[in-house]
Amino acid sequence: MRKVFEFDSPSGQYLADAAVLCCFDHRISLAVREFLKQQKIARVDMIVVAGGAKTLASPRNDFEQDFILEQVRMSIRLHGTKRVLVMSHSDCATYGGLAHFNGDRDAEAEHHRAELLRARDLLMTNFPNILVEPYFVKFDGVWQVNESGVLPMAIDDPRVMRSLEPPKQAGKYSRKR
Length: 177
Ligand SMILES: [Zn+2]
Hints:
Layout: E1 18-22, H1 26-38, E2 44-48, H2 54-57, H3 62-79, E3 83-89, H4 105-126, E4 131-138, E5 141-145, E6 150-152, H5 159-162, H6 169-176
Parallel strand pairs: 1-2, 1-3, 3-4
Antiparallel strand pairs: 4-5, 5-6
Bound molecules: zinc ion.
Zinc ion is lined by residues 23, 25, 51, 89, 92-94.
């Protein structure tokens, strides 16, 4: 082997602040990185695949869903992950883009909200002890998803963190098992 790039990486073992499942679309990657920085999520296991949360909510096949669940399982086992952020984004090609919704951004957001909640529920069923947070990434920022709608993610709002506390449904899902 021949060294072609000089760079010192941290070599110690780590506990991950979170695992993040998001689309590989380059247009949203900077927004995701900046959002994670703002959330003080530094050590992150990135699971970057076409469609992001779609691979759990509306997988093309069983293999895709199983593969992603296994990635989350590995992150939990190897890096003690307790928090998983699931993301999808506007104009995602795996959904047929914004064109699939005839340019209707509200219809698109509503569709993604349902997708993200389905992805969250699947993760909570499989991993009852982790906190799962669904987010919709638009071209104007990152939107937090809840049962009743898509909320704007106000960067400096202290309520943002409070609203991310483990949802009460955690008990409901563990009882289901
Ligand atoms: Zn995409």
